[in-house]
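ok so heres the complex, two chains, lmk if somethin looks off
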Amino acid sequence: MKNILKIDRIEKYYGNKSSLTKAIDNISFDVNEGEFVSIMGASGSGKTTLLNCISTIDKVTSGNIYVDGQDITKLRGNALNKFRREKLGFIFQDFNLLDTLTAYENIALALSIQNYPVKKLDEEVRKVAKELDIEDVLNKYPYQMSGGQKQRVASARAVITNPTLVLADEPTGALDSKSAKMLLEKFQFLNREILATILMVTHDSFTASYSSRVIFIKDGKIFNEIFRGTDSRKVFFNKIIDVVTLLGGDGSDVI
Amino acid sequence: MLFKISFKNIKKSVKDYAIYFFTLIVGVAIFYVFNSIEKQTVMLNITSDQREIIKIIVDMLSYVSVFVSFILGFLIIYASRFLIKRRNKEFGIYLLLGMGKRKISTILFIETLLIGLISLAVGLGVGVFASQFMSIFIANTFEADMSSFAFVFSSDACIKTIMYFGIMYLIVMVFNIFIIGKCKLIDLMQAGRKSERIRMKNPIVCIIVFIIAVFMLLRAYYMVTDGIGKIIRNPDNLLVAIILGAVATFLIFWSVSGLLLKMAMAVKKVYYNGLNSFMIRQISSKVNTTVFSMTIICLMLFITICVLSVSTSIKKSLEDRIEKYCKADIEISSGFYDYDETLDDLKFNGENNVFHLYEQAGYDVKSYFDEYVEYYTYNVYSLSDDNEEDIAEVITLSDYNKAAGLMGNSPIELKEDEYVILATNGVHVSRYNKLLSKNHVLEINHYSLTPKYDKCVDGVIALSDGPGVGITAYIVPDIILKGCEPTRDTVIANYAAKTKKEKREIEDKIRDMDVEYGYMTSKIEAYDANVGIGTMFIFLGSYLGVVFLISGAAILALKELSESTDNIERYAVLRKIGADEAMIHHSLFGQIGIFFALPLVLAVIHSIVGIKFSMMVVSMFVRKEELISGILATSGIIVAIYGGYFLLTYLCSKQIIKSRV
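and the predicted structre for the whole thing:
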């Protein structure tokens, strides 16, 4: 399996000498092509900071992050934007769709930013829309869609560019359970059928149970890591719950 | 506490609304400057004629001030609506925390008061300072003595400014209270939530409306350019044309805002290129929600362009004409006839020659002259074959060349059967050019003359024919007029003086001479009158023009900046999905550029017709060629002010959406 993401002893500090906060404290792990990895942890554990560092929205204090063999901590300015639009796909908790554009245009925008040939654009958009079952909302505006639909549009936008890595930050956070389930099934589909490599941050065990591997973070350090292997989702879910219980000491972060 | 909230709010918004504050300050300053002119000129050592002219200018400006205050009032109310809208959420929180609407109104009241006081104070300060330059400018144009320069503060203008703006702010306060009283908590709370409703207009309706609007506009254009005569006979037509034009402008913006998007979307190659889809959507939604203000701005720009270009042209033209047609210091003439009597009654005798008249009265007028030329002119029946009457005089070739020699004009040569028409007045020139191009034969004294040129010669035989009016004259070979009785004796002369001051002294002496029937015109007189008219036009033009320009541009800038909060999020999304800074700036530039350009483009189209119409009205002052300088000057002013606002808006927006990482 090809190595997609290699995180090498990264640290992220906030504050100054007198009050130093270690948001990320020496984390290393790899993600291979075609994996669907969840990162779990309580609020303030550093999981979102980790995602921000990988997505180049934030910068690490020390250590290196390699995507496709390229050290992204060395990138600056427009090289960063280029990296982001060509290698990464983003899915956010609050969808981050442009409210002035229709679903179709929102998806197409990811391609047109890359100066994708207009002739093939329509075909691509329709293909991904079919995969994510949003063909009937393509001409609607974000305010006319449900949360689940919005998130699937955002997912379509994230994967249409065939990114090396799809980053999802609490994608089910703003969804009801039915929509969340549907979305996660689509994630699974994308992961298995078009071999999208997905790295998802969540605090929800149910959401995490759809992935193939879960990395637990506590106080900026890796606490545990479990693989699904051949387990059914239900078995995997129970395993996750066990770790979460161990992790939190109390069940406050578990549904 | 309420005061503290108000004060902090202003401090917070100063950065975002710098353009609005700036506009208010400029508005107040301009208002003060143009209303303090009377006081500025009291100190100046100018003639009573000049003072009379200034009085007229001051009266005109005070009428215009009322109009200007309406425009500025509109701007302030519009702006305050923006300011409230932007803070809906904040007010929602106040209400939710249990603050009464009355208290919120008080907060707004204090804010308006503070903004008013600050802008008034700063504006007046700037105005008082700027008005000193105004005195220098006026003194220069009227060639007044500036030795008595003193710092002038016009308390009248100051009180007037405070009163006018005070009333405006008072209206805004009432307006604010009204708005706050009307709003509901749920709307306020949800205002912050992004839920932009995109209303798509039916493209077919848009096309139909667009076509109707274009026809209305063409009809309006036709009505005002169809000939000045028709409008004078039926002034209501002008009003109808203006209303038609205004409604058409509104409809064009309404339909274009719907069509713009559809058209852009049809060209997929452009629409799905880079951030174009986002940019075009942004523009379309912005234009959609500002159709009415766009119309107002477009019309204001239109008036600005017309007023500025025509007024600067008039000033330039008047100045040029003095240079061109007033080449001698003085002209004295005495007519041998009364215009009311028929030509047959004319009697010519040496008794009523100019110099004879002065001698009879006991004055030696010649002694004041360095050089002079005396000549006769004649009136002959039925000079032109069209029915329109004209005041044309005939002069012999040798007399014309004598006069031309004194005035430094090049002499004319004629064959025995040729004639030349001299004309300066635009209306006359076009009328006679028509005659000449048809090779019109002139019948005088049983001679038949043919035109030497197929166009009028640009020139005059005396000063009185100079600026503005321009009496037309025929130049004919000497032999033609043999035996005719002259109708007028004219003397043109240069004073035996070098400096302007000496010349004025001589002129005053000649003016004091009590001579009957002598009619005099002088370069100085013409200059004073023209300076007055020119200055009046330039004052009116720049007063209205600048106020319109800054108000219009400020509204556009406010609209753009008030959406900055929404835009921060939108541009953050674009950055997250990998848009370059260059792409984002490009998109922002295009967006604001098109938003600013739309009303300007339509205004320029209107102006082509508007200037054409103005030209018909002021054709006696300005000729087409002279308009170019005015249009150039206007373009310069618009580029500087409107372009400046555009650039400022772009830079501010860029600052606002700047990446926070």
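quick notes: Confidence is low (pLDDT under 50) at residues 339-346 of chain B. thats all i got rn
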